[in-house]
């Protein structure tokens, strides 16, 4: 998708060097010394962090700040200019590092722990544009069909291109039951898409579950502080419904943008009895770490199928990669996003926080999926005519390099069930249009059910199994039908899954660090949290 090159609001101030002669020309009478000063800075050797160079660059920064304040077409505050400079300093490093103001940091804590009024969208800034990372399940945005990768270009008919992300998010939030109109641009869609939504209270909910005959289904929407506890509660509920005779399990990680590293480790350890879950390698060797399994498998070896797609990122890729490397589960779906880095939140008392990339992570086999993603064991597209996610980590600007891994491929598998060869790679032409309230139309889910039933030694019928009888809602799981993450057009006749109540748990924003955002995180990446692509916000 091509866009005009918009000005990055937080553009790094060193970019002013190249523009210096022109600036001097336009401000001739007031800024004539700018060009000579820039040329003087140019003679300093690159990557020479001498006191002289640092002094010159600080002088350059102060000089540009002064000229902007004196000559910009409208008055601008020093705080805004400094904030923009900090944004540019960090966002220029990689797509996932950023500076958060005090308000943005406060919003991050709310998103991680509570609920808010809005649309249920996770968005991020990308070169002055606002891109959808993922709609949150069962929210106005998901029901309106907004897809990951969509660009929001206007709100209520007014262009937002080039506006700071926090301002855009503020405009999308609002009182419940109020209406808002978004204009979207979607790849391979010739005309802008206009959708009108009604704001609602967005509960940050991460676990949903259902039962298909004796096959359990658990959807993990994000990795936040309550993900593992919600997972354990949902699994316990499913086992009770089957009288401890569950035959297999599907874990749905589609469009899960990630979250807390510690939660990804705990979830992976719930299914892997021994061995490594993930390791991280930081700039300084003493800050690198490895985490091993907890000698537990809550399923006691039941067959497991994991659903993934291009929106599965970061923490969800850690879980998927560990299960694949240990050959503990069969991965079905599409290649994941490919974010193989870890971010740490470093609070600045009274001033907000820094979200900084501090390490790369590696799967148990030693591979880095940075920019590559995880390829499923069985490839199944969501829809016949939908190419899937159009944007992956490798498509973003100035990403960190994939390095340090010992292989780019997972260990070869000889344990796949025979049915894997007969699973179609895409829905048939007559497959029904996807409906979030009808799991029978979710093609990837239906193929996953076939695979896990075959792994469990159960007959694989042409028609999916009938759902279990409904049971009263319980606070441990979500009262909704499992909804595949991406509103595409997947499908396969299956019967709506059983509804259960889920824990009212917050949805983690991709990138809270090592500890809860409310407490300062150590500079070392010992407990950092992998973030979803870039610094997402939730309107």
UniProtKB/TrEMBL annotation:
Chain positions covered by the region annotation Disordered: 462-539
Biased composition (Low complexity): 468-481, 502-518
PANTHER family: CARBOXY-TERMINAL PROCESSING PROTEASE CTPA, TAIL-SPECIFIC PROTEASE
Family: Belongs to the peptidase S41A family.
Ranges of biased composition (kind: Pro residues): 482-494, 519-539
GO molecular function terms listed in the Swiss-Prot or TrEMBL record: endopeptidase activity; serine-type peptidase activity
One protein family per Pfam: Peptidase_S41
UniProt keyword terms in alphabetical order: Hydrolase, Protease, Serine protease
SMART domains from the UniProt entry: PDZ, TSPc
Family matches, as PROSITE patterns: PDZ (PS50106)
Ranges where the PDZ domain occurs: 105-173
Coiled coil: none
Name the record gives this protein: S41 family peptidase
GO CC terms: outer membrane-bounded periplasmic space
Any one Gene Ontology BP term: signal transduction
């Amino acid at each position: 998708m091509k866009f005009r090159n918009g000005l990055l609001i937080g553009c790094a101030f060193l970019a002013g060097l190249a523009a210096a002669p022109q600036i001097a020309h336009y401000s001739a009478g007031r800024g004539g010394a700018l060009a000579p000063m820039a040329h003087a800075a140019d003679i300093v050797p690159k990557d020479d962090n001498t006191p002289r160079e640092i002094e010159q660059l600080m002088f350059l920064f102060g000089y540009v700040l002064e000229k902007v304040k004196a000559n910009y077409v409208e008055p601008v505050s020093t705080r805004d200019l400094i904030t923009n400079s900090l944004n540019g300093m960090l966002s220029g490093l990689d797509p996932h590092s950023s500076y958060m103001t005090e308000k943005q940091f406060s919003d991050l804590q709310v998103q991680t722990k509570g609920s808010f009024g809005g649309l249920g969208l996770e968005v991020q800034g990308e070169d002055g544009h606002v891109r959808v990372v993922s709609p949150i399940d069962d929210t106005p945005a998901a029901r309106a069909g907004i897809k990951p990768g969509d660009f929001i270009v206007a709100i209520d008919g007014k262009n937002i291109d080039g506006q700071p992300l926090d301002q855009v998010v503020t405009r999308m939030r609002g009182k419940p039951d109020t209406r808002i109109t978004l204009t979207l641009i979607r790849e391979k869609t010739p005309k802008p898409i206009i959708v009108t939504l009604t704001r609602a209270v967005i509960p940050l909910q991460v676990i949903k579950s259902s039962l298909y005959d004796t096959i359990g289904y658990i959807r993990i929407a994000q990795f936040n502080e309550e993900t593992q506890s919600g997972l354990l509660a949902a699994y316990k509920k499913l086992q009770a419904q089957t009288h401890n005779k569950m035959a297999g399990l599907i874990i749905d990680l589609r469009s899960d943008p990630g979250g807390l590293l510690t939660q990804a480790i705990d979830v992976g350890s719930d299914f892997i009895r021994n061995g490594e879950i993930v390791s991280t390698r930081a700039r300084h060797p003493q800050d690198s770490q490895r985490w091993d399994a907890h000698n537990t498998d809550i399923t006691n070896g039941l067959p497991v199928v994991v659903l993934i797609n291009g929106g599965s990122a970061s923490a969800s890729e850690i879980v998927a990669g560990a299960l694949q490397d240990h050959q503990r589960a069969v991965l079905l779906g599409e290649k994941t996003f490919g974010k193989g880095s870890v971010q740490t939140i470093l609070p600045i008392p009274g001033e907000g926080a820094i979200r900084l990339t501090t390490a790369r992570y590696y799967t148990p086999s030693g591979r880095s999926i940075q920019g590559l993603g995880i390829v499923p064991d069985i490839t199944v597209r969501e829809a016949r005519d939908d190419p899937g996610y159009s944007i992956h980590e490798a498509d973003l600007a100035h990403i960190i390099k994939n390095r340090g891994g010992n292989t780019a491929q997972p260990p070869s598998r000889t344990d796949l069930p025979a049915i894997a060869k007969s699973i179609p790679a895409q829905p048939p032409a007559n497959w029904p249009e996807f409906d979030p309230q009808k799991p029978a139309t979710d093609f990837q889910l239906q193929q996953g059910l076939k695979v896990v039933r075959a792994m469990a030694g159960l007959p694989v019928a042409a028609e999916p199994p009938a759902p279990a009888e409904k049971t009263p809602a319980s606070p441990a799981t979500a009262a909704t039908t499992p909804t595949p993450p991406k509103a595409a057009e997947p499908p396969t006749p299956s019967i709506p899954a059983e509804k259960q109540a889920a824990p009212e748990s917050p949805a983690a924003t991709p990138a809270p660090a090592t500890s809860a955002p409310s407490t300062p995180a150590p500079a070392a990446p010992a407990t950092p949290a992998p973030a979803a692509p870039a610094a997402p916000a939730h309107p």
